[in-house]
Amino acid sequence: MLKVRFLGHAAFHLEGDGFSALVDPFLSGNPACAGAEGIEPQWIFVTHGHGDHLGDTVSIAKRTGATVVCNYELSLILGRQGVNTMGMYFAGRTQMPFGTVRMVKALHGSGVVEGDRVLYGGLACGFVIEACGVKVYHAGDTGLTSDMALLAQDGIDLALLPIGGFYVMDCEDAARAVGMIRPKRVVPMHYDTFPPIKADPRRFAQLVGDLAEVRTLKPGEEMEL
What we know:
The protein is α/β, with parallel strands linked by helices. Helix content is about 15%, strand content about 30%.
């Protein structure tokens, strides 16, 4: 069994037997954050270097000793800050103590703001995380891409997809993505945190129809798989 808790924006906690991971832990600066108290992750997955996804990664990793899984360039930036990292790129499935992880493409940037500079943070990505016998696809920040159709062969149990538009897919494109990915369940994310990404998850659910089960989680709510 795997528990998936929505922490607001694009942040999630995945927890199962002997497994605890955060994805894109934008917590302390997140006006929509809820349910993040007491989490002690072993792993932190970061889809790209923008502040609303990188978030509290460094402070949490230093406090808990968690390993940060991200792209190679971002791993170098974080490693200089004293964080344990695993820098990878788009490839096959990497065996992990909990199962497997695969980095997949996302259409987005990944600059890291450091003072008055913007550092090159590698390529943005999503992750397919297999843990406790469950496959979760976290899309990160992305526009719609035909590469998503390749995920249909993976048997995704849960897809976490952005719907807020402006920087990422809107409801219409996210629903098209569901048709390509063919997950069993889908949770919308990356909407309503800030005015530019205002979206209606009910419209998303209507557009998805019977392609997948849509679960709209409020920050702090969780589901079991």
